[in-house]
Write a structure and sequence with these properties.
This protein is mostly helical. The chain has 15 helices and no strands.
Amino acid sequence: MLFIPLPFVVALLLLILFVIVLRRNEEDEEPNRPFLLLILLSVLQSILSGLRWGYGVQAVAVVAPVIAAIVPPLAYAGVSRLVKTSRRPLPVRIALHAVPAALILLLMAAWRDAIDIALVLIFVGYALAILLLMRPGADALWLAPFEGAVPAYRAIIFTAAALCLSAAVDTFVFLDLTSAHSERALTLISIGNLSVLAILGIAAAAASRSRAPAETAETAPRPETSEDKETIAAVDALMETRKLYRDANLNLDRLARKAGIPARQISAAINRAMDKNVSQYVNDYRIGEACRLLAATEKPVTEVMFEVGFQTKSNFNREFRRVTDMTPVAWRQRKG
């Protein structure tokens, strides 16, 4: 009977996921390429794992550490594509993120015993860097449309968690291999690394939609200022007169440019005065108009969804429930 290692199955599933994401992003002018590359890299890692642990091809162990060192920078690059974090030229950023792989290559030539420790530090370091990017919440993602806040936020957090999990697995494997009994190493690698690859692939697929994550609300809102009131009044006027919320690609950066107000100022004002993030603020306007359309017209729910600025039923239904505690269909029936 032909033996097909589990890593090959995972690689096939991730490849299918990549094709689905690629087709979904065909209409995007500028897809999130680092996340797409991250899925492909997860496919390659899974194949190499299958060759090494399933068929005993030890030659792949030469390239595996270098490929592993590329994963965290790609994850960070995918997240930073949604955040204005650096004004450095693209070649400089690429050079900086190439440092981990270069370090592993250097260690392979000079100090192989330190490779595992270096990989752990690289994964943990980038995980912390991603979490620091997410510390301000959804409003840190200036370049991401508001609609799909929750899925993308969870995907980014899962990405950071997956990097930490990979570091933990590598640590346990290192300790197990250096002990007198290393029979658990294969099990740890098989379960741990495949779990990491699956999480990374799925998270990258979700975040590659370039949708902004939802921000956790502050436990105690700070007092609003007179500047906050002026800022919110200006943004409210834009929403009510120009219906900016109908733009499905509206993001914090675009909203700030339309209002002529710094993005951080808009975010801070809405957080302080309303105890919500800008994503929720915009979606409140969308749901408000959706309710009016559902009550006053016979338009299908899907048509209403597109008209008010949503692109997917899942996001529309989730936000509609958040605002009204009902589904759009149930709301229409009740108001009818």
